[in-house]
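Sat 14:20. Reprocessing the chain from the morning session after the first attempt stalled halfway. Input below, unchanged.
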Amino acid sequence: MNKINLVLIPACAPRSARHGVVDTSKLGSDGMTHQDRQQSNCRVSMICGLLMSMVAGCGSGNQPCTVEGSVTYKSKPIEKGAIRFVTEDGTPGEGDLGPITNGRYSLTKKQMMAGKYLVMISAFQDTGRRFIPEPGAPEVVEERQYLPKKFNSSSKLKVSLKGGANTEDFNLTD
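Finished this time. Tokens:
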């Protein structure tokens, strides 16, 4: 005749043990029955699979990317300016900054990573004024930034870049 011991079992214990009465002769050295071990192994496999799929989904942010495109303001190409991509929402790596020339830009030298970016655009016009900033320095042509703040310092322009080459065109209007 098997001896049955009554023991108090915590709520986190295996399912068969939570019934309050356990035949201790059927428990392994880990305190679990064969059925509990199978259920536990199944749960561990499911949790590992879920974690792996989550990591794989996040992996797209680790793919290098480049971006190029056109920039217009009031339907006219921006002749001279700058464009900056600032990382957002956990996008790994750094953003990038580059010139806009004759309405085009290309950020391909520095590797950005796939993900979400805030875009800041500035455009410059010569004022016609020239000056020497300090004695011995060359003459400088004064320029003014003419785009509204909503495209640069207060920008809300956002893009999502995928791994590899991307094209993003910006047609800015007031």
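The helical segments are 34-58.
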